[in-house]
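Progress note, sequence design subtask.
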C-alpha cells in the first residue's frame, strides 16, 4: 500500500437550523399554544399542547388532528433541546399517519417532518432523521405524486442524509431522480434546481468525475449568484464545492481563490465561531494537504476541530470527518502515533452516530489499519482490514472508491507477511471492482438525465 492517504473529498454541510425556527402546523382552535411557541414561551406551549392531546384522547372526537398536535409538541421540544422527547412525540405522529388516522394537513405535516429531519441530521441523530425524511417523502408521493417539486425536495433532503451516512450510491440515485423532476418543472434559474445540481456535483467529485462535477457546480453557482446575490451563504457553499474539485485536479491557485472568497462569505453569514466556519476551515486544510503544505494544513484543521467540538459538540459526525482529515495529514508526515489517536477518536464518533456496519465506519477501520501497517504491526492491522472489507462488500450502497482502497490495503498487508497467493487473489478482486467502477462512471456520463 502507498504510504500516502487522501483527505475526505465529499461533504454536504447541513446548515444548523435555529431550534426556534420551525413553523408549526396550525391545528383548529389551538391558537394559544401556537402563540406561546412563537413568543418563545416554550413551557407554556408545551403545557397547552399536552392538555390538547389529553382532551383529544379523552373525547376521541378529532383524532385527525392528533398527528398535528404531536408534531407541534415535538417542535417545542426541539426548541428546548429535548431531542429524546421530540423523537417520542414524532414517532407517535408518524404512526398515526401510517395508520391513516390523520388526513388533515398532511402536506403541511410532510413539510414539517422534512425540516425536522434536517434538524436531526444537523445533530448527528441519523436514525430519527432518516425516518422523518422518508415519511415526508411517502406523504408527498402519495398526495402530490412522484414527479412533483415537493417530492423532489424530499429526494434532495434524503440524498444529503445518505452522503452523511456514507450511502453514496443511494444519494446519487435520489439526486438524479430529483434532477429529472427539476428539469421538467423548474425554470432555468430555479433555486431548487441549484440545490439538486450542487448535491449531484458532490457525488461526481467523490467518484473522480471532475469535469462533470465542475460543470454542475458552475451551473448551480450561476443560478445562486443571479438569484440570491454574490454574498449569500449558499453561494459560499457552492464555491467550496467547486474549489474542492479544482484541488482534486491540481488546480490549486483557482481552488485557493474560490476558498478564500467562500470563507469571507461564510464568516459574514454565520460568524467567526460556527459549525459552518469550522467546515470552511476544514476545506482549507484539505486543500493544503493536497498541496502537501502540511504545516498550513495542520493549523487549519486544528482550528477547525477545536471550533467544531466547541460549537457542534464532541460527538458530531462533522467533527469526526475533520479529525480524520487531520489524522491523514499526520499519517502522510509519518507521525503515526498522532494519526492513530485521531483515527481512533474519529472512528468512535462514527460508530456512535452510524453504527459499526456502516461504510464510513469501514473507512475508519481501513485508515487505522494503515497506521498499524506502517508501524509493522501486521497482526493488529489484519483483523481491521478484514472487518472493513466485510462491511464494504456486504453493503448494498456500494462505495467503490473506499472498497478498492481497502482491498489494495489488505493485499499490501498480505504481501508484507509473505502470503503472495492470497495477496494476488485480493488484488484480482480489486481489479474486478475497478472495472465495475469504471463502467458505472461511463453510465453516468452517458445518462440522459444529466443537464
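Output:
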Amino acid at each position: 500500500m502507498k504510504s500516502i492517504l487522501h483527505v475526505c473529498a465529499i461533504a454536504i454541510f447541513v446548515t444548523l437550523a435555529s431550534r426556534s425556527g420551525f413553523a408549526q402546523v396550525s391545528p383548529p382552535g389551538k391558537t394559544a399554544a401556537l402563540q406561546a411557541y412563537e413568543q418563545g414561551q416554550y413551557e407554556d406551549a408545551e403545557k397547552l399542547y399536552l392538555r390538547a392531546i389529553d382532551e383529544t384522547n379523552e373525547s376521541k372526537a378529532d383524532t385527525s388532528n392528533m398527528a398535528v398536535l404531536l408534531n407541534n409538541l415535538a417542535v417545542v421540544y426541539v426548541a428546548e433541546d429535548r431531542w429524546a422527547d421530540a423523537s417520542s412525540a414524532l414517532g407517535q405522529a408518524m404512526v398515526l399517519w401510517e395508520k391513516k388516522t390523520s388526513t388533515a394537513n398532511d402536506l403541511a405535516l410532510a413539510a414539517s417532518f422534512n425540516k425536522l429531519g434536517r434538524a436531526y441530521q444537523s445533530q448527528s441523530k441519523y436514525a430519527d432523521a432518516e425516518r422523518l425524511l422518508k415519511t415526508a417523502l411517502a406523504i408527498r408521493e402519495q398526495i402530490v405524486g412522484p414527479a412533483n417539486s415537493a417530492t423532489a425536495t424530499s429526494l434532495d433532503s434524503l440524498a444529503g442524509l445518505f452522503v452523511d451516512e456514507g450511502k453514496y450510491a443511494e444519494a446519487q440515485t435520489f439526486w438524479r431522480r430529483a434532477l429529472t423532476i427539476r428539469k421538467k418543472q423548474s425554470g432555468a434559474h430555479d433555486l431548487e434546481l441549484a440545490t439538486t445540481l450542487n448535491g449531484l456535483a458532490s457525488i461526481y467529485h467523490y467518484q473522480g468525475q471532475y469535469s462533470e462535477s465542475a460543470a454542475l457546480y458552475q451551473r448551480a453557482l450561476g443560478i445562486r449568484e443571479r438569484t440570491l446575490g454574490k454574498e449569500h451563504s449558499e453561494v459560499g457553499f457552492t464555491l467550496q464545492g467547486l474549489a474542492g474539485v479544482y484541488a482534486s485536479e491540481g488546480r490549486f491557485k483557482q481552488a485557493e481563490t474560490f476558498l478564500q472568497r467562500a470563507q469571507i462569505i461564510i464568516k459574514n453569514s454565520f460568524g467567526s465561531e460556527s459549525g459552518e466556519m469550522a467546515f470552511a476551515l476544514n476545506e482549507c486544510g484539505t486543500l493544503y494537504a493536497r498541496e502537501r503544505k502540511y504545516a498550513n494544513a495542520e493549523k487549519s484543521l486544528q482550528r477547525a476541530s477545536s471550533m467544531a467540538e466547541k460549537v457542534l459538540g464532541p460527538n458530531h459526525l462533522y467533527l469526526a470527518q475533520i479529525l480524520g482529515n487531520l489524522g491523514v495529514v499526520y499519517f502522510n508526515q509519518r507521525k503515526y502515533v498522532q494519526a492513530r489517536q485521531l483515527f481512533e477518536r474519529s472512528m468512535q464518533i462514527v460508530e456512535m452516530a452510524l453504527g459499526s456496519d456502516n461504510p464510513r465506519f469501514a473507512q475508519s477501520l481501513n485508515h487505522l489499519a494503515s497506521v498499524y501497517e506502517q508501524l509493522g504491526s501486521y497482526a493488529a492491522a489484519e483483523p481491521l482490514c478484514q472487518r472493513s472489507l466485510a462491511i464494504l462488500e456486504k453493503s448494498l450502497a456500494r462505495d467503490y472508491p473506499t472498497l478498492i482502497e481497502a482491498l489494495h490495503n489488505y493485499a499490501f498487508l498480505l504481501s508484507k507477511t509473505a502470503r503472495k497467493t492470497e495477496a494476488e487473489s485480493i488484488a484480482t478482486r480489486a481489479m474486478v471492482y475497478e472495472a465495475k467502477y469504471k463502467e458505472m462512471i461511463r453510465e453516468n456520463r452517458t445518462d440522459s438525465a444529466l443537464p
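Residues 13-23 have pLDDT under 50 and may be disordered. Work on this subtask will continue into the next period as scheduled.
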